[in-house]
Amino acid sequence: MWGIIATWSMSLDSLITAGQELDLETTAADTVVSAIRQVEDFPFYKSVGYGGLPNEEKEVELDAAYMDGDTLSVGAVGGIKDFANPVMIAQRLSQEKVNNFLVGAGAEKFASAHGFQRKNMLTQRAKKLYEQRMKELSKKLAPYTGHDTVGMVCLDKMGSMVSATSTSGLFMKKAGRVGDSPISGSGFYVDSQVGGATATGLGEDIMKGCLSYEIVRLIKEGKSPQEACNQAVFQLDEQLKNRRTEAGDLSVVAMGKDGQWGCATNIKDFSFVVATADSPKATVYVANAHGMQMRIEVASKQWLESYFAKRSGSN
Ligand code: ASP
Q: How confident is the model at residue 140 (pLDDT cuts 50, 70, 90)?
């Protein structure tokens, strides 16, 4: 068995390649890192890597993480600037015994010492969007709502699982703001003996429920990945609404150690991509909650065309 699941349609191209690699017995570690790198390198995704939107000081600060489900090793970077592939730095940090999670200048120093590729991550297009937004918000800055993290959970033929994330976080965030994506248990978690999960949405709210760990915990208790995703997302959404009147965006994908998968969301039209040994063609699905159940449908051609026009076009 092998399988890979990823947040958002932007992972489609990566997962087409990833599926082929996993079928040839490439490890989950190599597959996930190259799949996320592909998303990081694509200049038109406004929320990950090169082309990611800047913070309120017009600087692109990136968060990323990597977790090995066999050893439970975790590596992460927060608020790193001017490096092309934060996921690779996170993977490298996961091999250290201590100092696994580095932020800001410390993360950059580590990346530089280990020869990772430097790159100015602010594109002309992102600069233009920033300037436009500054005009719109000349009095009051507020975070952009269209932030999307790439997060993946992968199972290889050898039974090893890996999870990783990469994001530029919220557009117009405060300098130094770190979201859930590099935080173990919130933005991601994986245990090869159980399964893994990864989240996207409003980091500040995802962290209130340690959402990814909660899902893996529920799978360990015997829930299917779909049941675990539903329970974790709907309960956190309800709790946040009851206690704080509103809940931010919460979307998750998960995969069990047997390749079964699940997804839950509290937003409209959350997209994600899956490829497994049973169904090897990387497929984009669109998920919507209906009461306490999820309706998950294969994305139509028309849906995909309009998604990609919106995400990677000139707007
Ligand atoms: N969770 C990310 C953050 O808060 C953003 C996202 O996934 O859309 O930084």
A: low
- Domain coordinates in residue numbering, the chain: 3-312
Residue located nearest, by CA, to atom 8 of ligand 1: 148
CATH topology of domain 3-312: Glutamine Phosphoribosylpyrophosphate, subunit 1, domain 1 (3.60.20)
Give dist(CA 152, CA 11) in Å, integer. 9
pLDDT in tens, 170-212: 988 999 999 999 999 999 999 999 999 999 999 999 999 999 9
Write out pLDDT tens, residues 60-106: 999 999 999 999 999 999 999 999 999 999 999 999 999 999 999 99
For 264-296, give one letter per residue: b (16+ CB within 10 A) or e. bbbbeebbbbbbbeeeeebbbbbbebeeeebeb
Considering the entire predicted model, what is its pTM?
Answer: 0.94
Q: For ligand 1, what atom is nearest to the CA of residue 7? A: 7
Q: Given the residues 149, 167, 198, 200, select the one marked as catalytic.
A: 149
- How far is CA 50 from each of CA 1, 47, 261, rounded to the nearest angstrom? 33, 9, 29
Verify whether residue 149 is a known catalytic residue.
yes
Query: Ligand 1: does its nearest atom lie under 6 Å from the Cβ of 183?
Result: no
| Residue 252 to residue 151: CA distance in whole angstroms | 9
Q: Residues 87-96: pLDDT tens digits?
A: 999 999 999 9
Asked if residues 312 and 48 have their Cβ atoms less than 8 Å apart, the reply is no
Residues in the chain: 315
